[in-house]
Amino acid sequence: MDRIIGLLIIAPPILFALTVHEYAHGWMALKFGDPTAKDAGRLTLNPLSHLDPIGTLMLFIVHLGWAKPVPVNPYNLRYPKKDMMWISLAGPGANFLTAFACGLIIRLINPLSGNFDMSSSAFGILVLMIVYGMVINLVLAFFNLIPLPPLDGSKILMGLLPAEYEYQMMQLERIGPFLLIGIIVIGSLASVPILWMILHPFISFFSFLFAGVDFSRFF
Prior knowledge:
- Helix content is 68%, strand content 0%.
- It is an all-alpha fold.
- It has one domain (2-218).
């Protein structure tokens, strides 16, 4: 019963974080002249339009996951390489800003950032959802910045690398998803959270910076 209640509490922050992430990709693509996401009905804040079954399930199970990628047609972009870099950055950037907003709300709830009410009361549950929202958005932001395909970080890196390295990155795109899933599965089987060890210092620092408390230790 407690597990079901926990899932009901964490579900809205997860869905919102995924939706904001994908919406930001589509919005930025439209700004650069590509209406593909809008035409496909993906320029929306309806979470059902963005859910990837496996990626969402992974978020609930191991707290690392992804949404269904927003379609982007680089042929509609004036400067494909540079524009794709900014389109890719928009998703993590939106999560980062959302985490910052959650942190401000937490500070307003308790200016001393001390004894938060995260009880079973309606107010306590709301506070807990905001805390989850901040941490989940930070996790999504920094997880997606890892420069490994198909994550956004690989496209950002592609935009920064000289042209002579593009072939190597394109080769990495073929095996990147398998490497990523392999790292997650091996870490889970060996009870060694490899990705969390990489992400934790960033989550810890920005959690304390935004909210005044390192909430990463509760996850």
